[in-house]
Design goal:
By secondary structure, this protein is α/β, with parallel strands linked by helices. It folds into two domains: about 300 residues, 3-Layer(aba) Sandwich (Alkaline Phosphatase, subunit A), CATH 3.40.720; about 35 residues, no CATH class. It has eleven helices and twelve strands. Strands 1, 5, 6, 7, 8, 9, 10, 11 and 12 form a nine-stranded mixed β-sheet that branches. A three-stranded antiparallel β-sheet has the order 2-4-3, with no helix packed on it. The relative contact order is 0.22.
Length: about 375
């Protein structure tokens, strides 16, 4: 299976994504921000999607979307950076530089034979993908991807690439300051060669919205995924969901863009007969406060995650957190699903990877696969 991870950076507002539209307390706490009427699409008698998620509702109605209620971790932290580190490393209590997806790639390809087992679409390297000995390609624009692409003249560029290749050519590994640097450099060179061929192999009747950044990232995922280069883990970033102000406008646009992008991507996978072998995981570092601040919401804790795929057992999974004062965590939603349960379920049920080898412990799994 292929795993496509979409990070909703900034703290997605759980309550205005999966809306408890029949809970009077929701509207008491959100006199300004509470969604109702045409702003929601009911999923059952209790909860609804934000109306901007209509494309995802179509996938939900087909049984392809699992909505995982109340995801979070022990001892919540409202810092974007610390909370995201916790999600990226699967370590809620300790600091770690080892990402859970990087470790997963290492388990799937222990010799590092494939330099593009994991591919990130965006700037930098998410900590989730970092792991010693694992080479990860970070791609901005796939068509222009490669090393020294801005150098004028093919001869100059080839000469510089030859120098880099010689730098990363091992002579005596014991003499290197860092074997990890050696492996990373060689992997990056090999990965650039592999990935820049992907767009030429790609053809699709599906049209991605040009001004939709997450849609363009997912188009890149589709190009690499269907190229048959052995890439298995894909990462993309969407946001910012840090909606302290003007949330009704900003949050709506974020979900409108994302929902359209995911539906378009799924149509592309189906055209290429790759949908049965792909699962999408969407998460955010935390949810937001139960009460609004009149024009937005502030950092909270418990949130919602999504799994999407033909092999996903769709529906609402778990209990929606209660909003009564006694059930809150200092004004926040109290999580009731440990995020490592979600990871364990993905690894075992979709990726054929022993969760204990990645998470260093055993966690109860969720019934998300079929």
């Amino acid at each position: 299976m292929n795993l496509v991870v979409i990070q909703l950076s900034g703290g997605n507002d759980y309550l205005n994504t999966v809306v408890p539209f029949n809970d009077a307390r929701y509207y008491e706490y959100r006199p300004v921000m509470g969604l109702k009427g045409e702003s929601v699409i009911p999923l059952d008698a209790r909860v609804a999607f934000n109306s901007e998620m209509r494309p995802l509702k179509r996938l939900f109605d087909q049984g392809k979307v699992a909505v995982i209620m109340g995801t979070g971790y022990p001892e919540p932290n409202r810092s974007h950076f610390r909370s995201m580190d916790i999600w990226h490393t699967a370590e809620p209590f300790a600091s770690s530089a080892e990402g859970w997806l990087g470790k997963t790639a290492s388990v799937m390809d222990p010799t590092g034979a494939n330099p593009v087992t994991a591919v990130n679409f965006g700037r930098g390297l998410p900590r989730a993908l970092a792991y010693p000995g694992v080479s990860v390609a970070s791609v901005g624009q796939l068509e222009a991807y490669g090393f020294l692409t801005g150098i004028a003249g093919a001869k100059k560029r080839d000469a510089l690439l030859d120098v880099m290749a010689r730098i990363y050519q091992p002579t005596d590994e014991a003499g290197w300051v860092s074997a990890r640097m050696l492996g990373t450099g060689q992997g990056a060179l090999r990965g650039a060669d592999v990935l820049r061929e992907a767009p030429a192999k790609y053809s699709s009747n599906v049209e991605y919205p040009a001004e939709n950044a997450i849609a363009q990232s997912l188009k890149g995922v589709a190009q690499v995924l269907t190229a048959g280069v052995g890439a298995r883990i894909f990462y993309a970033n969407h946001g910012s969901f840090d909606t302290h102000t003007n949330e009704l406008v900003n949050h709506a646009k974020l979900w409108r863009d994302l929902a359209v992008a995911v539906e378009t991507f799924w149509q592309d996978l189906e055209e290429h007969h790759a949908a049965d072998d792909t699962v999408i995981f969407m998460f955010s570092e935390f949810g937001r406060r139960i009460a609004d601040n009149s024009s937005g919401t502030d950092h909270g804790s418990g949130g919602v995650s999504f799994l999407i795929g033909n092999r996903v057992k769709g529906g609402l999974l778990g209990e929606y957190p209660k909003l009564a004062p006694a059930d809150q965590l200092d004004g926040d939603v109290r999580f009731n699903t440990d995020y490592r349960q979600v990871y364990a379920s993905i690894l075992d049920q979709f990726m054929d990877v022993d969760p204990s080898a990645v998470l260093n412990a055993k966690f109860d799994q969720l019934p998300v696969g079929r």
